[in-house]
Design brief:
Elements (H helix, E strand, L loop, with lengths): L38 E2 L15 E2 L15 E3 L13 E2 L5 E2 L28 H19 L6 E3 L17 H11 L5 E3 L20 H10 L21 E3 L9 E9 L2 E5 L14 H6 L1
Parallel strand pairs: 3-6, 6-7
Antiparallel strand pairs: 1-2, 4-5, 8-9, 9-10
Amino acid sequence: TGRDTFDYCRDASLTFSPTSAPFVKNPNFGTPSPTEYSYEYTDTGVICPHLNETNFQGPAPLADGSNVALQFFAYGDTPYDNNLNGNKCIAPDGTIQFPCTLFDCLLENTTITGLPLENTCIYEGREYDCNRDHLIPYMNGEIASNKAAFIVHVGDFIKGSDFASNSRCQNYTFASRKELFSLATNFVIVTGDNDWNECLGYNVTANGGDLRDLWRESFALAAPFNQFSDVFPNGNLPTIERKTTANLQGDVNPEIFHFTTDDIAVFGLNAVTGATYIDTTTINEEWVE
C-alpha cells in the first residue's frame, strides 16, 4: 500500500469487494501489477493510493482455504507525508506545531541537507491518518477474524533521499512511526533504504551508528515488535528469533529475524537498495543457514 500527495481516501463507489481474479479498478489506474495473483483488498470503503497504484492482497484464497499455506499482510513505502498537510513538528513545549515554523520540513531531496539533523519534523498528514484510521484497523480486523496471521512493513516509512543524506531520519520521526505501528496487531518491520542507509551520516564501513541503533531499539528490540501477541489462525503463537548474538566479526543485527509456523519458515532480512555495510558481509546468508 502507499500514498499519493494530492489524494487521501477515495470514494466508496471506486472500491470493490475481493474477487478471485485481478481487474482494472478504475481507468485512471490502469492494470494492477502484478496481474497474476492480486485482487483489490479493501471492503472498508476507502483506500490510500500510492502514486496512482492501489492496495492488493493475494492470491485470492479459495472458499475452503485449501490454497492458503500462510496468509499475511505486506505493505510499505508509507507514510511519507512530506507535503503541506504533513508539515508538522514538535514544539519545545512538546506540542505539535502545524504548520511547522521551527524548521523547513518541506525541503526537497535536492536541498534536504539544509534540514539540520536536530529537527523535530514528524511528517504526519493524510497518509499517516489513513494508515491509523483505515489500513491498520482493517488489517487488525482481518487478524482478529483469523483471516490473516501477521503484518509486515517492508520498509521506507519516511520519504527517502540520496545515500547518507536524509535528515528526515531522527528521533521524532522514528517515535512517530513507532507510535503508529504499535497500533497494529502482530506487526513486524524490515529495514528500507529511506530509513537505513539513506539516513544522514550512514557509514558503509560500520555495522552500527546512532540512527541504526535507534532503528533497532525502536522497531526490533522494543515491544510490541519483538514478539507476537495474538495467536495465528492455525492456533500457533510463533516466537520471533532475532540476530542478537554476535558473529565472528562481532556484528549484532536484531533487525534480522526469523520464525516458523506449521513448518513454514519466515525470514526478515536486511536487504535494502543501495550500498550498505551488510552487502560487504555474509550476515543475511549466515542467518538463513
